[in-house]
Amino acid sequence: LSDVGGMPVTLSIVATSITAHSEAGPVYARMASKEHFAKVCVGAFAAATALYLAVGATGYLLYSDAVSANLLDNVGFDAEGRPLPGMAWLQRLPPPVFAPQ
């Protein structure tokens, strides 16, 4: 509970998770039936939560402790951490793709 070493990772996850909130106003403005906005929000967050849980549970069940905390560190490696044949190019892909624009 007091592991401050994980704070940068936690803050980046929280910052990323709230980026979609800036779209709530424009979505509401374009809705034909604004009284359904609350139901749409609940449905959207439920769908996102279900997707995150499904991906997380699948990853945990398949790889458990073999997964690095930074998922991009796992790209191009198998569950034992060995490089996947022919996949070395994947290790160079994340930095330019996920770098801030």
Architecture overview:
With 101 residues, the protein is an all-alpha fold. 53% of the residues lie in helices and 0% in strands. The model has no long low-confidence stretch (mean pLDDT 80). It contains five helices and no strands. It has two domains: 65 residues, no CATH class; 34 residues, no CATH class. Its main location: membrane. Pfam families: Aa_trans (PF01490). It is found in: Membrane. This is Amino acid transporter transmembrane domain-containing protein. Keywords: Membrane, Transmembrane, Transmembrane helix.
Secondary structure layout:
Layout: H1 7-17, H2 24-30, H3 37-63, H4 89-92, H5 94-98
Mean pLDDT over the residues: 80
Global geometry: elongated
Estimate the strand proportion. under 5%
Number of domains: 2
Oligomer: single chain
Q: Count of helices?
A: 5
- The total strand number stands at 0
Q: Major sheet, described briefly?
A: none
How would you sum up this structure in a few lines?
This protein is mainly α. It has 2 domains: 1-65, no CATH class; 68-101, no CATH class.
